[in-house]
Amino acid sequence: MTSVSIDEASLRQSPGRRLSTFFYRHPRLRLWTLLALPVLWLGVVYIGSLLVLLLSAFWTADPFTAKLVHEFTLDNLRRVFETPVYRDVAFRTIRMAALVTLACAVLAFPLAYYMARIASPRVRNLLVVAVLMPLWGSYLVKAYAWRTILSGEGAINWALGPFGVSFNGYSNTGLWLVFTYLWLPFMVLPIYAGLERIPQSLLEASADLGARSMRTFFRVTLPLVFPAVVAGSIFTFSLTLGDYIAPTLISSDQFIGTVIYREYGTALPFAAAYAMVPIVVIVAYLLVARKLKAFESL
Amino acid sequence: MPDVRVSGLTKRYGEVVAVDAIDLEIAPGEFFTMLGPSGSGKTTTLRMIAGFEIPDEGTIELAGEDVSRLPPYDRPVNTVFQDYALFPHMTVQQNVEYGLMVKRVPKGERRKRAEEALEMVRLAGYGERKPSQLSGGQRQRVALARAIVNRPRVLLLDEPLGALDLKLRQQMQVELKSIQREVGITFVYVTHDQEEALTMSDRIAVFNQGRVEQVGPPAAVYEHPQSEFIAGFVGVSNVIARDGRRYTVRPEKIRLVENGSEPEPGWHVEPGVVQDVQYVGAFTRYHVALDRGGELQVLAQNLAEGSSQVLEAKGRRLRVQWRPEQESVIDESEGGSE
Fold it and tell me: In what order do the strands lie in the sheet with B154-158?
């Protein structure tokens, strides 16, 4: 009886109100209405396309028409693992990703530390904007700008000229600089947030218990902010691992991204097989990062 | 020689004077409480003694040595923080050993002393846990053990019981006091809770607006407040002006008597009307408006009366009386005479 009277009451209300009452009474339906679109996107478009990519690694392409032949084969994977060139490219890319991550961490830490613990609120806000600003610019514009900076007549060589030194910018060293520039904000922000989260009283307690600044840093600050560094490194590492534009523009060497890019037009199955390499590396990296509690810092 | 001597201590934040030329002397082994409302300068004073803030003027001496400009790590004091400030990435044992590790005490002795300290705060066997696995009261004890294990000359406590609920707080008050007696360390204790200050302290300094208004043993501060602020902050103010004097009488010292009854010889007697009655279980609080001006709070034990009886008193005319020696003069010069 009561439910009937409630329904009568709700009939008198506006349609919008009736709808919200309906959803209020059916929380499960409400949840699915909310999540339908993102689940579809993640499930079909995102995961689905990845699965198709992985699946195609076990197919072959017709060498003349470049059309896919749906026949199961392990040839592509075998080629990835047994050809020395592709192994070298993979290791070169991983090494580059590691060096870029290291450089970003070394540059980001003091900056983030200054922002979080020393700078006045005004300077801090300015720096946050300054760190974020490059992200507003187009990736391509920045990459081409660096191509100009690194060229034989570019800014770097112009500055080094008076010392009689010249720098070959179109090299892996140049690429390392470009990557470090491109991904630095992704390292600064998590470290900054991580440092902000450390209560001032912990640092005071350490000093109170007799520790000088250096010891407080190594015993308290660094261990507490380390997960945030790992969180930042997920970005710098994975972004470097998958990039193909900067290597194409700056370096003459092959990287994982450039190999996939080159192969996928003519030999999609092989490109797909090679794409498994960075996926496996990243999954392994994420597992280690989870062990180091990095996800609690994101 | 006092353990702590503070002279002319001043701290400003821009235009605001947080601590205004304070002088204090704290004896060795004393349980000294700095009591006051928030913003009264008590915590800032404590933080200056600890070394987290550098005074603008004045000096701080610890056992005769001027430490005003020394960093926290060079001062023979340790602090128990309001939020405990336990290191979340270390176990309880590592937290307690931290100060000893910094001072390069050998591992075996470190372990032994940390275990003793944990035993003292009744947390033996909790060494391997992380602070996040402990309750608020247990964290508080770890913070205490972590400070005491260093055997500081002076222990500074910044509202250490503020985050605990009433029952736990009362229990910890007793424990803190007995630990203090056991270790014999000078305690400098900051609180805004007057009851806490009265029950635990050897002496209390009452802070107001960056100044110390009164220093003395709990009974003296409570029974003979030297200012209206103290009368109101430590208890209820109960200030009235009579014959050119302003004074306060503590509410439990006042008796309510029926209008016709014979007054006690030598007592101060005045007629009034009961404005309000609050039944608080063990006792009842009466608000009495006096005919000669002013209002007094009166506390009476509910020895035989029930709540319905005491509540009937509202609106009744009666008399209040107290012994003249219970009057505590606040100001001789001011106050109108009636």
Answer: B77-80, B154-158, B186-191, B31-35, B203-208, B211-216
